[in-house]
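Two folds, back to back.
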Amino acid sequence: MKAAVLHQYDESLTREEFVRYEDVDDPKIVRPTDVIVRIGGAGVCRTDLHVVEGIWRFKVDVALPYIMGHENAGWVEEVGRGVESVKVGDPVICHPLVTSGHCLACRRGDDMHATDSRFPGINANGGYAQYLLTGERSLIQLPKSLAPKDVAPYTDAGLTAYRAAKKASRHLLPGQFAVVIGAGGLGHIGIQVLNALCAAEIIVVDRSDVALQLAKDCGAHHTVKGDGHEVERVLELTGGNGAEAVIDFVGEGDAIAKGLAMTRNAGFYYIVGYGGKIELPTIDMITSEKTIVGNLVGTYPELVELMALADRGLVHLSTREYRLSEANQALKDLHHGQVKGRAVLIP
């Protein structure tokens, strides 16, 4: 099969070629619950750029060369002898983790913390290819209204945004405020999820005018340009106290300090983006009683819930399509901020 393969890390992201488009062996069924999916769409994520940079080599055990791509959807191509819930030809979206289902975390539905798992595109071959090896337990059948190429990024970008927005929606009340920092690939989904799940006023902060327009299109009630004065503007919009919930989809640079400054006392700061550090004096944590919440992808049931919202037309993905052979261009466009929403590779 054809695949876009990562052969070496590039810490500066300056090489002309991040991945190599080439022929590789087709994946093979090994376990009775294995499923091979013919890829209809593979999302291109900022995490993929972090993989290219080599950041993830200190977190996971993976040997180069390997195939990135952890946001995948397509059609069932082949199934193991023990597979019963899907059949060849079924359109499916893949939960990003492949788990056995036997550990306690799995039995509690905490897929992200399973002790027996693999993460295609992170620590195993992923979906920047014509075919993907996954597991039956990871697959959700798609309704007729949703095509694989249009929903692939929901498996990480959408699911992560949904999980954070769902947590926030549980305590947000009418008349309260939610701030979304970053209206890109994840943020534009988070805005729509907040609108679908709660009645809080949504303030979106971004440096890009294109992203702010996308935020308005997705239902943001207020937009604030990230020009160095965003904290003051958010405080003004919230009556001087800050927001009850801040969801930070950036998580690096000065976004963290500003996000915490936008969070009112006893409020919640949800960190989704990564690359930076949270540095806060303990006395400030005590006197403000702010809660800092980490977010790691999401559960299988949460992906089912997100597909239900998409099926009803309550959440839409803004995507830009590239051929699989154009993987380098997609990665470079993402790196240089030239992708509105999410990039999707199509074999």
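---
second:
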Amino acid sequence: MMTGNSSSTKLDNATLSMLQNVNSSSSSIVISVIYLLVTVINLVGNGLSMWLLLFRTSPKTPSIIFMINLTLTDMALGAALPFQITYQLQGYNWNLGPRMCSVLTLTFYTNMYCSVLTMMAISIDRYLGIVRPMLFRQTRESKFFAVFSCLLMWVLVLSVLYPLMTTDLTFHIPELGITTCFDVLKKDMLPSVSAWAAFLFSMVFVLFLFPFCVTTFCYINVIRKLSRDSKTVQKERAIRLASIVLLVFTLCFAPNNILLLAHSVLRLFYQKSLYMAYKLSLCFSCLNSCLDPFIYYFASKDFRQKLRAIMNLHSLSSADSMKMEQRESLYSTH
């Protein structure tokens, strides 16, 4: 995102030079390659995950419902990425109109923040199931509550991102003969600096930092509980799950949100830019859609067993398998 000059249709020389050279830069090439790889891995991995979660995993516990919600957002991103790749290969020239630009931008950010909130919901579910098993037990095990929570996530994310749905995010640059999509924004997209501050605060702090703190708290306490009470199998799996989730937050989500805030402040008040760094971080934020299936593997015993069956990884005898299931079920929230 580059914040243009108020309502002016002209850009400063630095911005023009940056956009003129961006398509031939090494960063732009790296971004396009990463998007292409993410698209393939996303659609294959999440397509398999969705099939397993919908048709091969039963019962549909709250954790499974949260995973279905997460997979849905990931697949939507996978379907949108080819449009982003085409846009970049055409020299950052968007020719599909303002509405499609808004859909693409909204897909990127709803994927990121719905993923953040869904991971938080999964961590809370595991925390309550392992650390506080009697707290809100009936509510936590309710499918209706899980579905309601997913709907609430979508409402919250779309409410915060509402300006992206109501604004023309395309910007025609006659000097370069191109029309950008969410790469140049006018300051008057929002009515005041305070409105910009509220928008950025909601994205960075409400949709990212707060869920990150809650998720970290939950997994730290889960690991502590399992370290005291469980055997090595449960403890190692919990540590792997926590490590993957925290990796997704720190690698995929944190750089993008930090750079979004820093870049916006620099453009609004100091006419400076972190444009390419932000674009690269947005690219890395999409990697979460490739890592999410690993979260399902360690978070759901049923998903894990079905995946093993499909990949013919059953090396245990039936008796050993039953023993393993009994050991896993002690602290599993399915």
